[in-house]
Amino acid sequence: MNKPDSHLFVIFGASGDLTKRKLVPAIYSLYVQNLLPDNFALLGVSRSIFSDTAFREKMKSALHEFKVINDLTKVEQFLQKIFYEAVDSTKAEDFGILKNKLKKLREKFKIEGNTIFYLSTPPNLYSVIPKNLAIHGLNTQKDGWTRLIIEKPFGYDYNSAQKLESELIESWEDEKIFRIDHYLGKETVQNLLVTRFSNGIFEPLWNRNYIHHVEVTSAESIGIEERGVYYESTGALRDMIQNHLLQIVGLIAMEPPSSLEPSAIRNEILKVLQSLRSIKKEDVGKVSIRGQYLASKIKGEPVLGYRDEKEVDPNSTVETYAALKFYIDNWRWGGIPFYIRSGKRLPTSVNEVVIHFNKTPHFLFSKDGEVNSCNQLVLRIQPDEGILLKFGMKIPGTGFEVQNVNMDFHYSDLSVDRIPSAYERLLYDSMKGDSTLFARIEEVMAAWKFLMPVLNAWENDKKIPLFGYSAGTWGPEHADELIEGENMSWRYPCKNLADDGVYCEL
Ligand code: BG6
C-alpha cells in the first residue's frame, strides 16, 4: 500500500467519544504502519477550550485506554502532528479563526491545498458545518483536493435525508462527500464479497433455487451507555438497520460486479436496495417486531431498563430491538425471505449472516418422523470472525443415524497479527480518494424509502405493540414467529462461531 498525498485532516467534534475511541487510534495505527503522508497534520475542532498540549494529552490517554500503543517514541512523534482549535461550528464568523489556523498548519507542514473535514458531531450540524466552510471558501482548494466525511445517521427519515443532501450539494460536489458506514470498513464485511466472488462453489447455489432463507443478526450485549439523547432520536431501526444491516444485505444479495471499480460495486448494491419489496402499511404489524429492554439481572448484576437510562424519557417508545422480514424482488431472490434483527442488551455481542439452504427433496435417513435440518452457511462478522458450514454426517455405528456437524474457518488461524479496524481502512481510503466502501446518496435514499412504511406505522399505529424484553435475553419472544416454516427459528449464536443455542456459553 502506498502513502496518500500530503494533507490536513480536520475533525469536527474532536472532544467527543468517537474521536478518542476510533478516529485518533485509527490514524495512529496508519502512522505506525507508515501509511500517513510525511507531510500531515491533524486538527481537532470543537467548542470546548483546549490548548494543543492538553488535547494531545487527552489523545495520548485515549491511545492508552484503547490499547493501541506499541511504541512510546512513535506516540510522541505522532502527537507532534496533532493540534487543536476551539470553534463554535454554528457561528460562521468562527470559521475565519479556523481558516487562519489551517493556513499556519499548511505553512508549518508544507502542505498545499489538500484537506479532509470529518464531521463527528451531532447530526444537526451536518448541514451547518459544510455551509460555514463554504462561506469561508474552505470547500474548494486551489492547490489540491477537499473532502468531507459525514458520519451516520444521514437524515432522520426520507425527507430529512433529502433535505440534508440538497443543502450539502449547494456548496459541495458529490464526489467530495464521503458518507461513512463503518461496517463497510470491517474486514469480514468486505470478505462477504471475496467469499462469494472468489469461489466457484458458492455462486451456483446463491439463489432462490437452493436457498431457503437468509438471516442477518446484529446483537449487542451493551445497552445505550451514555448515548440517551442520541438514541431517543434514533432507535434500532434507524441506528443499525437503515445503514449497517441493509449494506450487509446489499453485499449478500448483489450480482457480481463487472470490476472492482467503486461505481461497479456501488451500482450493484444500489440495485439490491432498490429491489427491496415495499412493505404495505397494513402488513407492517405482521413483518416487523419492535421491543425495548426492561430492567433485569445479567450474571447476577442488576441492569437498568431502557426507560431508566440517563436522558431517556420515562415513557419512551423508542425501540432498542427491531426485526424485519422482507423480500427482494429480482430474479435471483424472488420469493426468498430475508430476516434481519438488531438489538441492544441481548445475551451476547455477535454480528453474522446465516444462509439457510433448502432441505433435500427426499430425506432417506429420517427417524421417527424427524426431518432433516437444512445446511447452513454462517458468515461471522464479529467476534470469532470466520465461516462455518453445517451439514449432516453419519454417526459411526450400525444403521444410518445422522448428526449435524460443523466445518469452520477462523480468521485467528491466519497468520496475520491483527485485523485492521474498520475506521483504519475507511480513513485510509478517504485519504486516497477511494469511495468504494462509502455509501452513495442513492443507497441512503433507497434504504430510507424502504423503511418509511415501518417507521410511519410504528409511530402512528397504536395497534402495533412495542414488546418489553428482559435485558440479557434474545428480545421479544414474538420475534420467533416472524420466521415461518417447520422447525425454523433464528439461530441463537454464541461468542464462539461454532456454538449456538439459547443456553450456550456467552
Ligand atoms: C454504531 C451505532 O453505528 O454502531 C451503535 O450507532 C452501535 O449504536 C455500533 O453500538 C456498533 O458498531 P460495532 O462496530 O461495535 O458493531
Name every ligand kind in the structure: 6-O-phosphono-beta-D-glucopyranose
Average pLDDT? 92
Query: What are the low-pLDDT stretches, counting only 5+ consecutive residues below 50?
Result: none
- How many domains, as an integer? 2
Global morphology: globular
How many helices? The count is 14
Reading side by side through the largest sheet, how are the strands ordered? Answer: 16-15-14-13-7-12-11-8-17
The CATH class of the largest domain is identified as Alpha Beta
Structure class: alpha/beta
Cα distance, first to last residue?
38 Å
How much of the residues is beta strand, in percent? 15-25%
Assign a percent range to the helix content.
25-40%
Using the CA coordinates, give the radius of gyration.
24 Å
CATH superfamily annotation of the largest domain: Dihydrodipicolinate Reductase, domain 2
The profile of the biggest β sheet is: 9 strands, mixed
Q: What is the fold-level CATH name, i.e. the topology of the largest domain?
A: Dihydrodipicolinate Reductase, domain 2
> How many distinct beta strands?
17
Would you kindly provide a brief summary of this structure?
This protein is an alpha/beta fold and 506 residues long. Helix content is 32%, strand content 21%. The chain has helices spanning 17-32, 52-65, 72-79, 94-109, 128-135, 158-171, 187-197, 228-232, 236-253, 262-274, 284-287, 422-432, 441-460, 479-482, and strands spanning 7-12, 40-46, 82-86, 115-119, 146-150, 177-179, 211-219, 288-294, 296-298, 301-303, 321-327, 337-343, 350-357, 376-382, 386-394, 402-410, 466-470.
